[in-house]
């Protein structure tokens, strides 16, 4: 899922109790990603472009 700011979205999701799998990190292709789990246990990746 694309977002404007992975770091802020990640903080907001953690504050809402969403389990984290992998914290925000640069991927080397001008993207910043984080990985979390939704309530059904599915993996959800949030992504933004590095400015």
Tell me what you see in this structure.
- The protein is α+β, with helices and mostly antiparallel strands.
- It is 20% helix and 41% strand.
- It has one helix and three strands, in the order H-E-E-E.
- The chain has a three-stranded antiparallel sheet with strand order 1-2-3, covered by helices on one side.
- 10% of the residues are buried.
- The model has no long low-confidence stretch (mean pLDDT 96).
Main β-sheet description: 3 strands, antiparallel
Tell me the total number of β-strands: 3
Give the spatial strand order of the biggest sheet. Answer: 1-2-3
In terms of DSSP E residues, the strand content is 35-45%
Total of helices = 1
Shape: globular
The first-to-last residue Cα distance is: 18 Å
- Which ranges are low-confidence, i.e. pLDDT below 50, for 5 or more consecutive residues? none
**Main structural class:** alpha+beta
H/E order of the elements? Answer: HEEE
Mean pLDDT over the residues: 96
Helical residues, percent: 10-25%
| C-alpha Rg (nearest Å) | 10 Å
């Amino acid at each position: 899922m694309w977002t404007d700011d992975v770091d802020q979205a990640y903080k907001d999701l953690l504050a809402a109790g969403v389990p984290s799998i992998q914290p925000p990190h640069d991927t080397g292709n001008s993207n910043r990603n984080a990985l979390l789990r939704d309530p059904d246990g599915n993996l959800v990746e949030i992504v933004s472009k590095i400015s």
